[in-house]
Amino acid sequence: MNPISILIDRIHSENLWDKEIKLKRNEYLKVKGSIDTNIYLVKSGSLRIFVVDAYEEHTIRFGYKNNLIAALDSFLNEKPSELYIQALKKTTLKVISKENYTNFITSSAENKKLWLSILESFVLQQMERERDILTSSPMERYTRVLKRSPQLFQEIPNKYIASYLRMTPETLSRIKKS
User: What is the pLDDT of residue 178?
Assistant: First the structure.
């Protein structure tokens, strides 16, 4: 069982979720400049985390069923974030506040170890993604993501996957056909 699944099971078993929220398609969970110190479990639906520069949106992460999602920078430093989190379809989320989450994590050495393992995994994923964007061809990026996260291609519209892979939707379409 992976560390995130174990963590989710423990939070469930201790009934620590603060509430459940529902988002409509295209509704924002978080917008640029806001502080969000919650962690969310996606019960159903899908979301994307993205940033906007002067010219376009850049998708940096996705969340779908049984994923945890957060504006991690804002969660950790309790400051406004440049991130947007948007529902891509009707989405239901369970919410745990930073206070409740921190109390849970610090309640045992085992929980601390689990959280550290999840953060380490996240850092390694981000490093791999950055390396891919900087050094890999569009085909190599597509192949790696398909191998790592095949469910992504069932849950997320191609235009957002293309943004995540740093290519145009047309390039993604050509790659998928080849």
Answer: 86
What is the pTM for the complete model shown?
A: 0.92
Place of tokens 């509704």: 27
| 99: CB partners within 8 A, 6+ apart | none
User: Please, are residues 41 and 17 in contact by the beta-carbon 8 Å criterion?
Assistant: yes
Residue that the structure tokens 């309790």 belong to = 78
CA dist 117 and 68 (Å) reads: 14
Whole-number pLDDT of residue 48: 97
- At residue 62, the pLDDT reads 95
Structural contact between residues 29 and 23, judged by C-beta atoms closer than 8 angstroms: yes
- CA–CA gap between residue 2 and residue 56 (Å, rounded): 35
Task: Read off φ and ψ for residue 146, nearest 5 degrees.
Answer: -60, -40
Q: Say how far apart CA 111 and CA 25 lie, in whole Å.
A: 34
Phi, psi for residue 173 in degrees, rounded to 5:
-60, -45
